[in-house]
Amino acid sequence: MLRRCMCTLLLCFVALAQPPPILDYIKQTWPVLTRSNQDLASAAPDPKFRPAADGRWPVYVSRSADLPEKSVDLPNIEIRKLPEDPAQVRGQGLLYLPRPYVVPGGRFNEMYGWDSYFIQVGLLRDGELELAKDMADNALYEIREYGKILNANRTYYLTRSQPPFLTEMLLGVYGRTRDRKWLEDAVPAIDKYHRYWTSEPHSTPETGLSRYFDLGDGPAPEVVAAERDAQGRTHYELVREYFRTHQVPDYDVRQYYDRKTDQLTPLFYKGDRSMRESGFDPSNRFGPFSVDIIHFNPVCLNSLLYLMESQTAEIMHILGREADSEMWRRRSQDRSARINRLMWNERDGLYYDYDFVHRRVRQYPFLTTFYPLWAGIASREQAARVARNLPKFERPGGLQTSTYLSASQWDAPFGWAPLQMIAVDGLRRYGYREDADRVSKKFLSLVLAEYQKTGTIVEKYDVVRRGTDVSSEVRFGYRSNEAGFGWTNAAFTALFDELTPADQRNLLKVPEPQPQHARILMANEPLSTGLLSYSGRVTLWFRFPER
């Protein structure tokens, strides 16, 4: 049915020899990736699941919300009230949001927590202020109605959030609108979301810092449904095989795997879900599969909470609430002191994650070492030490996520747009402009060269080999390289805008090879597996198979 809906579009454009300029393509992508409750036929389908037996997709509204307009009579949609207990949901479905939102693309046809911040950066850059504000308003709505900013607005994500960028999003909009009333109305949600991260089980009394911790139990539904290898084995079956055949010195594997029964334990699934709340799913940053994350205070999360606290102090100052501003400022100062005391490793000159059980850092070089620079926590001396460690990460196509090969997508040799942004902005903040420019040009030239070959922008890149063919290198988690792609689009424009005009001109002079069967979708033409996103407004480039 979805194919029929898309293929009846009267998009009878003449096939072109090459894709449009990349900045034009990115700007044109935002409406294609936009979803809303006014267009549930595009918003509700979930590439990670199948519809119900009757072909309909459930859409859940909170118990206090009204039914979405123009939705009751849609033949492929069933509107349901959300149960008070998320465990009572029968049939995974979309969670209602009141405003339009931008999805990442590909298999991710919903609004994601931390993706939304990076996407919003791109929207603001491209003059899409109303949509950027819609993204922030939806985040506030999720806090009010669902208790937190969700991993994404699907029912199987109700038990966890994602890295907290809320105040960054709010101040990004306020910087354009100067709407003090809107900012003041957001304060209760800021308080509520901060409590989510600073109350148990997310807070750890041993350190006064926070951790990722999913509130649900058992296997993650989206993993069971959609993360399988070529033989049909799920991620969890591959993990069991790994535990059977490998020694694991990183943690006591008996917590997570029962060798006698060849079963993963309930604590494994708790750790696995919590790793997904971090957004870095998966890597070996917290041991194999990062399942030990529940015993760590991550440097990325606590840097973001420092930023949230310091920015809330700024918001309170804007609103004239000086006593509240000072309270939030003290909170941020206390957190930055704890980060520098517990997470800074003087010998290595890097920030690491803190194991609060064994009271030590895990010396696993990871690009999150740049978060304290991006947030302004590091001293000048610490920033200099981190900058001198750039060769650990810098490769021909930008920065690799870690220094280890683990066959997981959030380790070497892969590079991801949001971490390029954070690292580069951290370097710029402390005056390392040449390093920032060099890294930016490496990553931008990779994204541009691959776009000119294929006509698409994707979610992750092999920065060592300078390519996008990553499926054979990824063993754990999903292996696809999704096209779209929200945060890569935004990061490209953000990094590009920070270059000098001369560097911008030189970058865009990269030779333009002919795309491989990239062209505008024709009316009634079958879609390839390279579908960019589900939308009723497809006017962008797609890859088609050989004929």
Brief summary of the model shown:
With 547 residues, the protein is mainly alpha-helical.
What characteristics describe this protein?
disordered N terminus; three-stranded parallel sheet; 40% helix; disordered C terminus; 19 helices; mainly alpha; 547 residues; 10% strand; three-stranded antiparallel sheet
Report what the structure shows.
The protein has helices at residues 2-7, 22-32, 40-43, 113-125, 129-146, 166-177, 180-185, 187-198, 221-226, 235-245, 266-277, 299-318, 322-342, 371-375, 380-388, 417-429, 433-454, 486-497, 501-507, and strands spanning 34-35, 57-61, 77-81, 94-95, 101-102, 203-204, 209-210, 257-258, 263-264, 296-297, 344-345, 350-351, 353-355, 360-362, 394-395, 398-399, 414-416, 460-462, 518-520, 541-543. The protein has 547 residues and is mainly alpha-helical. The strands form 9 sheets. A 3-stranded parallel sheet has the order 3-2-4. Strands 10-13-14 form a 3-stranded antiparallel sheet. A hairpin with a 4-residue loop joins strand 6 (203-204) and strand 7 (209-210). Helix 2 runs antiparallel to helix 18. It is globular.
Quick check: average pLDDT? 90
Taking pLDDT < 50 over at least 5 consecutive residues as the criterion, the unreliable ranges are 1-16, 517-547
Give the helix tally: 19
* Lateral arrangement of strands in the main beta sheet: 3-2-4
> What is Rg?
23 Å
| Beta content | 5-15%
**How helical, in percent, are the residues?**
40-55%
Distance between the termini: 25 Å
Tell me about the biggest sheet?
Answer: 3 strands, parallel
Shape: globular
Number of separate strands? 20
Structural class: mainly alpha
